[in-house]
Design brief:
- The chain is of the alpha/beta class.
- It has a single domain, classed as Metal-dependent hydrolases (TIM Barrel).
- Helices cover 35% and strands 14% of the residues.
- The strands form two sheets. The chain has a six-stranded parallel beta sheet, covered by helices on one side. A three-stranded parallel beta sheet has the order 1-2-4.
- Helix 6 links the parallel strand 7 and strand 8.
- Helix 2 crosses helix 3.
- It binds fe (ii) ion.
- Fe (ii) ion binds next to loops.
C-alpha cells in the first residue's frame, strides 16, 4: 500500500460530512428520461428531495451528451429542466435547479459545439468526461479547441480514468492546461486499494481537486453516497476551503 493511501487510512467519522458546506451539486443525472439517470418524473422529484435532504441549496443537472447514444441538444435539456421545475413548485420550491450537460469527449463533440452554444455552469465552465476504457488520442487538441471557444473545462471524475492509474503525469498535463478536476463523492466509499480511490487520494494530496459532485443516476446510488459521507478524507477535502462548488 502506498504512503499516500496509508495517510488516509483511518476510522470512520461519527457523524456524516455536512454537504451544505458545498452549497451546490454540480454533477447529477436528475432530469427524467433523457439519459441513463432518472427514468421518469417521479424518480426525478424523489432524487431532488434526497439531494436537498443532504443539504444542497442548488442542483445543476448534467445529462449526458454523447454523439452515439444520448444525442441531447441544449433545447431538449432546457425543456426537460423546465418540466421538472414546474413539478417541483408543489413539492420542493426552495431548491434551485439549473441545467448544464456532461459532454463526452468523442468524435462528435467539436461538431456539436460548432452547432450549439454549450450549456455551461458558473463562469463559463463546461463539464467534460473522457471515455472509460481507452485514452482519447487527440485529447490535447480538443481541449485547446474548447478553450479557444472561450469555455473553461471541468473534467468529470478523473479518478475513473484508470488507464492513467500508473502515469500520474497525465493528470498533471491536464492541470498545466488549466483543466479543473471534479471528484465523485461516492469514490470515497471505495477501498483504498481500488485504482479509482488511489487516483482520487493522489489528486487530493496534491491539491488538484476543485469540485465535488454526486454524479447521481438513481435512488440506489444514494446508499453509496451516504456511506462516503463517513469517510475522513472527504471531510478533510470539504473543510479545506479549496473547493469551488459554491461559485457555480
Ligand atoms: Fe455523470
Amino acid at each position: 500500500m502506498s504512503l499516500i493511501s496509508n495517510m488516509f487510512k483511518s476510522k470512520k467519522l461519527k457523524s456524516p460530512v455536512d454537504l451544505s458546506l458545498l452549497e451546490v451539486d454540480m454533477h447529477s443525472h436528475i432530469l427524467p428520461g433523457i439519459d441513463d439517470g432518472a427514468y421518469d418524473m417521479s424518480s426525478s422529484t424523489q432524487m431532488v428531495q434526497q439531494l436537498a435532504g443532504l443539504g444542497y441549496r442548488k442542483l445543476i443537472a448534467t445529462p449526458h451528451i454523447m454523439s452515439d447514444i444520448y444525442k441531447n441538444t441544449p433545447q431538449i435539456i432546457i425543456n426537460t429542466k423546465e418540466k421538472l421545475k414546474k413539478e417541483l413548485i408543489k413539492k420542493n420550491p426552495e431548491t434551485e435547479i439549473t441545467a448544464a450537460a456532461e459532454y463526452l469527449l468523442d468524435e462528435g463533440l467539436l461538431e456539436h459545439l460548432e452547432k450549439y452554444d454549450a450549456l455551461t455552469m458558473g463562469d463559463n465552465y463546461i463539464l467534460l468526461e473522457l471515455p472509460y476504457f481507452t485514452e482519447p488520442n487527440n485529447i490535447y487538441e480538443i481541449i485547446f479547441r474548447i478553450h479557444i471557444k472561450g469555455y473553461k473545462i471541468i473534467l468529470a471524475h478523473p479518478e475513473r480514468y484508470v488507464y492513467w492509474c500508473d502515469d500520474f503525469s497525465k493528470f498533471e498535463k491536464l492541470k498545466d492546461r488549466d483543466v479543473y478536476f471534479q471528484l465523485n463523492i461516492s469514490t470515497f466509499a471505495e477501498k483504498h486499494s481500488f485504482p479509482t480511490r488511489k487516483i482520487a487520494d493522489n489528486l487530493i494530496n496534491l491539491g488538484m481537486v476543485n469540485f465535488l459532485g454526486t454524479d447521481i443516476h438513481n435512488k440506489k446510488q444514494f446508499e453509496l453516497l451516504e456511506k462516503a459521507l463517513y469517510e475522513p478524507p472527504l471531510a478533510k477535502l470539504v473543510e479545506s476551503g479549496n473547493l469551488m462548488n459554491h461559485l457555480l
